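pls design
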């Protein structure tokens, strides 16, 4: 065995045996001192590679003095390397001139042992010349952790005592072993073991190695509850944070045993019983037993439920002059005879405290006095509101901001120095500062007593978060196919609260780039201002039909400014200038049917709706929005209301004229037990101010509303509302000319949009276990109701006869066209069909128009406000590779021509 391996084995074995770290002191005369003799059971010292050092496992001994009671003439130190001899002598009580005795020598050895600086030490007395021989403990070169995969080095090393360049002692090793095992116990790994090893190096240095065997995570196999009669085991287990290990809880982190969680669960049980009226409930015992294999725990609770109580006399005693006790008592949410509920008592205390704070009593003391009546099983509750002075704001202190300017934070306060204190305004100020997104989560404004009892200091102790965002994402969407997004954004530019951003987006059907800037407080006033410069390229290739492709390019500038009207309401004005270009493939959609040598967009090929939209135009749009919001979060709200009413007018110059109005409202609230409900509604109407002639709509295709996937689940993109379906003829088995079915892929199907739309959504988010919540999984059920409608029928050449007869028309080459009216049960026209049927009503053959148009019928369908309804389930998942959304929906109500879609998803990643 080499000296290195020998040293490792020696440390490991001796420590596991519980031997002390200090080496034994040896006498050189062969006989032990009278008081320093060691028991016969002491292990034999093991020699070390260094011949001058004493064995590491030896016990200290003293040399028997040759002459009992010698006077100490000199004291010398041998073997010291790092320590000065004078320092070592100062640790003991022996001094020249004293009488050397066995007791004094033993005490000196004890003093040397207490320093923990030496691996071996001994004292020799030669006729009054005392020699202290020491072997210093080694210096730690490195501390090495091996086998730790569940806990990183940077989590363990700060928790232990040993560190490089420190003196090695065995007591510290034992303490560090216990500390590491405790860290693993906190993670529920009670089978973890730690084996310390030492590698001897030159210059009296050592490497300390902790060999860690982490073992499996100890789960809670079973939870037993004894003594419960009113509530079942399942009801009580649902109240606990700890969960039994099972397949249903595979993603939960609460199935591991945690002593702190065990104590917390006892409090949870007590809180539950107190809310049900069982004021005498107590947990008699809570025992966690580790199974013999150290893999699982079995937890047993013994409980006493006691009697159930009701509220007795409930009243308020107010010592504040602004609070009338009788009035407050009459407004309490609990009444005599209700089952006792400790949570309601806490809620009333909190409510009275907040009410007092609203009136300026920042340090109001509200205490419930509860009297238990075991005979009548009632609980009398008196809420005492102690007298307190009205409080004013002495100062507002802002600390911790190194980048953000004070004024950016201070302007969010709803209170100023010298104002009367109001807890309502403090909460609102806290919410506004949190909404900035510049600081730590759950920021709270602290209230500190001022220089006098009627003064309070508000402290905003902030911790700044990075506000710059550099985002690159890629993903796949059933709507957009492959997507790439890139953006850079600074939400607190120069610490002034300004926002500046640059973004680009690319997908199969759209490309865009934009630059934006927002100043929330222009000239330090309550005026927000900003601008956007953008370019958007779009095509409708998602139809996947070659004969219906067009491209739209928009280059624009938007200017905006806003002012707050109230705390929750604001007004936003904007001006937009767009240069819009709409084009099609001329080789495919242009024709010269008039024979004048000039090709132009032919409605029989491209459709009248598309031909009307072609061209370049300038849009000058003035808009106004009225916004209202009480949402508790802009990112993921769980309560509150948001509403917006907007009006746009296009016509201050430019080529497009219309008036457009939109409304949007959302409401979120908690349904209890973790369920979050939401209702939303949006709608709009656009009125065209351009007269585009007969059979042409006053609103261009590119300015209309559309509805489908992305807005209304259960339907394909632009799958709801007015559309033209061009159905082509085919030959059946008997050789007859027949039309393809309405939903056949061979048809050409183009959505037209509408001048009006509405869309309502109802959704309930379903809570899952803690494991699913930790993974960011949020399922929901939803129902969508909506419609888009109101567009001029583009297939009409002239009004049809009321009896639905064919009306012969002619194209530029004289070929016969027919407009057919389709009547409903009430005799009213519900659809119109423009047809180039191979056989005319007279029986003659109707030949195709040129080479581009085979015989077809063109039907106008879906233009109705009748509601379309879909229901389904959705899953949001904040996955490790990015946000993921799945929706599975089915259409319960639809109209002829609507396109449905059951499954849709969107996924992306950040890198």
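designed seq:
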């Amino acid at each position: 065995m080499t000296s290195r391996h020998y040293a490792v084995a020696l440390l490991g074995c001796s420590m596991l045996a519980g031997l002390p770290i200090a080496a034994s002191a040896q006498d050189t005369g062969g006989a032990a001192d009278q008081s320093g003799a060691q028991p016969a059971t002491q292990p034999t010292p093991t020699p070390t590679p260094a011949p001058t050092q004493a064995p590491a496992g030896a016990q200290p001994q003293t040399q028997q003095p040759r002459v009992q009671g010698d006077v100490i003439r000199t004291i010398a130190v041998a073997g010291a390397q790092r320590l000065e001899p004078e320092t070592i002598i100062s640790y003991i009580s022996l001094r020249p001139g004293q009488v050397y005795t066995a007791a004094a020598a033993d005490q000196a050895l004890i003093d040397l042992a207490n320093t923990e600086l030496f691996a071996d030490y001994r004292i020799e007395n030669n006729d009054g010349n005392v020699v202290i021989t020491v072997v210093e403990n080694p210096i730690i070169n490195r501390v090495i952790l091996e086998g730790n995969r569940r806990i990183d080095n940077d989590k363990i090393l700060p928790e232990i005592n040993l560190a490089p360049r420190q003196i090695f002692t065995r007591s510290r090793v034992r303490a560090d072993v216990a500390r590491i095992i405790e860290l693993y116990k906190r993670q529920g790994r009670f089978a973890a073991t730690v084996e310390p090893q030492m590698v001897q190096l030159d210059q009296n240095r050592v490497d300390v190695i902790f060999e860690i065997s982490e073992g499996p995570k100890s789960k809670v196999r079973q939870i037993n509850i004894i003594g419960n009669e009113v509530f079942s085991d399942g009801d009580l287990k649902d109240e606990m944070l700890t969960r039994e290990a099972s397949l249903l809880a595979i993603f939960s982190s609460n199935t591991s045993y945690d002593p702190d969680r065990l104590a917390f669960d006892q409090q949870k049980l007590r809180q539950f019983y107190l809310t049900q009226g069982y004021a005498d409930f107590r947990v008699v015992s809570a025992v966690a037993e580790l199974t013999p294999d150290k893999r699982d725990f079995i937890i047993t609770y013994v409980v006493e439920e006691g009697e159930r109580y009701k509220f007795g006399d409930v009243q308020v005693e107010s010592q504040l002059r602004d609070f009338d006790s009788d009035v407050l008592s009459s407004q309490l949410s609990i009444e005599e005879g209700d089952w006792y509920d400790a949570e309601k008592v806490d809620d009333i205390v909190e409510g009275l405290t907040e009410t007092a704070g609203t009136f300026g009593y920042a340090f109001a003391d509200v205490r419930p006095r509860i009297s238990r009546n075991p005979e009548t099983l009632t609980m009398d509750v008196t809420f005492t509101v102690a007298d307190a002075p009205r409080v004013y704001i002495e100062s507002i202190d802002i600390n911790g901001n190194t980048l953000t300017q004070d004024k950016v934070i201070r302007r969010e306060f709803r209170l100023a120095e010298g104002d009367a204190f109001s807890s309502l305004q403090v909460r609102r100020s806290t919410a506004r500062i949190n909404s900035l997104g510049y600081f730590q989560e759950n920021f709270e404004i602290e209230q500190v007593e001022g220089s006098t009892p009627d003064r309070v200091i508000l402290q905003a102790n902030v911790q700044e978060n990075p506000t710059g965002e550099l985002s690159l994402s890629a993903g796949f969407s059933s709507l957009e196919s492959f997507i790439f997004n890139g953006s850079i954004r600074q939400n607190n530019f120069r610490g002034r609260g300004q926002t500046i951003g640059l973004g680009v987006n690319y997908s199969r059907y759209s490309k865009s780039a934009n630059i934006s800037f927002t100043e929330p407080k222009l000239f330090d006033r309550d005026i927000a201002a900003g601008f956007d410069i953008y370019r958007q390229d779009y095509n409708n290739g998602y139809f996947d039909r070659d004969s219906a492709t067009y491209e739209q390019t928009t280059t624009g500038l938007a200017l905006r400014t806003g002012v707050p009207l109230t705390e929750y309401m604001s007004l936003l004005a904007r001006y937009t200038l767009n240069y819009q270009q709409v084009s099609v493939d001329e080789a495919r959609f242009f024709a010269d049917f008039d024979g004048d040598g000039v090709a132009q967009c032919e409605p029989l090929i491209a459709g009248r709706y598309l031909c009307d939209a072609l061209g370049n135009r300038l849009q000058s749009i003035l808009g106004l929005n009225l916004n209202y919001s009480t949402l508790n979060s802009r990112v993921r709200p769980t309560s509150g209301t948001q509403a917006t009413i907007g009006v746009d007018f296009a016509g201050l110059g430019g080529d497009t004229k219309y008036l457009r109005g939109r409304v949007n409202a959302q409401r979120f609230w908690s349904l209890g037990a973790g369920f979050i409900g939401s209702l939303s509604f949006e709608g709009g109407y656009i009125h065209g101010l351009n007269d585009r002639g007969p059979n042409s709509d006053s609103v261009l295709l590119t300015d209309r509303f559309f509805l489908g996937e992305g807005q209304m689940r259960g339907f394909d993109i632009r799958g709801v509302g007015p559309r033209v379906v061009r159905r082509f003829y085919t030959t059946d088995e008997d050789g007859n000319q027949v039309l393809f079915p309405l939903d056949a892929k061979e048809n050409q199907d183009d959505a037209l949009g509408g001048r009006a739309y509405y869309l309502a959504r109802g959704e309930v988010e379903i809570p899952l276990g803690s494991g699913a919540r930790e993974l960011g999984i949020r399922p929901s059920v939803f129902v969508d109701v909506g419609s888009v409608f109101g567009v001029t029928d583009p297939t009409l050449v002239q009004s049809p006869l009321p009896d639905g007869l064919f009306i012969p028309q002619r194209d530029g080459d004289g070929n016969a066209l027919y407009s057919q009216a389709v009547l409903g049960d009430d005799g009213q026209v519900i659809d119109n069909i423009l047809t180039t049927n191979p056989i005319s009503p007279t029986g003659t053959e109707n030949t195709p128009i040129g080479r581009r148009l085979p015989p077809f019928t063109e039907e106008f369908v879906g233009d109705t406000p009748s509601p379309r309804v879909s229901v389904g389930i959705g899953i949001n998942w904040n996955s490790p590779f990015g946000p993921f959304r799945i929706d599975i929906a089915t259409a319960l109500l639809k109209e002829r021509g609507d396109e449905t879609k059951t499954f849709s998803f969107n996924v992306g990643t950040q890198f």
